[in-house]
Amino acid sequence: MLHVEEVEVVVAHRDCATLRVGDVFLKIDADQSRTDTEVEAMALAPIPTPEVLWRRPPALALAALPGRPLGRLGRPSTASPAAWAAAGAAVRALHDAPPPPWSGRDPDRLAADLDAECARLLDDGLLPADLVTHNRRLAQAALRPWTPVFVHGDLQPAHVFVDGDEVTGVIDWTEAGPGDALFDLAVLTLGHEEHLDDVIAGYGADVDPDLIRAWWSLRCLLAIRWLVGHGFDPAAPGCEIDVLKARM
Fold it and tell me: Can you give the residue ranges of the Aminoglycoside phosphotransferase domain (predicted)?
């Protein structure tokens, strides 16, 4: 009988699950279109990504990246300012590449999604009305026309791996597509405002920090009901609800 190493459940909910066995990550997704996007995006991305070992729907096997995550929402990051700047430089390289050939969300669609989510947050009583109203007003600034670039779409610092001050790779590309460059920068720095200047310095282009902050509000408002429904806690210290409160 073959020796099987300990199986670690990295994440599991109704939509998908990721398991780790040694140096292999096994992703199982109920929606194979997301896996299609991930595989295609990794092939197109000009920055390091995990090696695809094999794919047998509904499973995708990826090699583990060296290093450790840049940070995690709700926890202080132990990565250096130089590592955060390196992450900014990697994001800029991605944004400078040609966008993928599939469609992404535009400001009009996002505005409709935001209106619907805010209404449901209030109807469900998940957040106080003043918190939703204030952050909805801040989020409006992000909903301006933009030139689409190649965005990762879910660039949490937990998805960026670093070894020392170097980026070794980026994982979880299921949301990749054409989009607003500032959205990636916002997701990367969400809950880690102390590293915003480091990321912008590494990115090396004129960006408006206030628009990034507007995306923080927008991202949190759109995510909270999904997080609650999938077993996550947006009210944990330093997470989405605290980010919204900090904008008040």
Answer: 43-206
| Contact (Cβ atoms closer than 8 angstroms) between residue 69 and residue 168 | no
pLDDT tens digits, one per residue of 24-47: 999 999 999 999 999 999 999 999
User: pLDDT of 56-109, one tens digit each?
Assistant: 999 999 999 999 999 999 999 999 999 999 999 999 999 999 999 999 989 999
Q: Which domain holds residue 190?
A: 66-246
| Global pTM value | 0.94
In a domain, 188, yes or no: yes
Give residue 47's pLDDT.
98
Q: Is residue 16 part of a domain?
A: no
Task: Give how many domains the chain has, as a whole number.
Answer: 1
* CATH code, domain with 215: 3.90.1200.10
Whether 2 is covered by a domain: the verdict is no
- Number of Cβ atoms within 10 Å of the Cβ of 3: 5
As a whole number of angstroms, the distance between CA 114 and CA 95 comes to 25
Which pLDDT tens digit goes with each residue over 192-245? 999 999 999 999 988 999 999 999 999 999 999 999 999 999 999 999 999 999
Residue 150, in any domain of the structure: yes
CB atoms within 10 A of CB 207: 17
In this structure, what token pair is assigned to residue 110? 């996002």
Q: Which two structure tokens, joined as six digits, stand for 233?
A: 């806690």
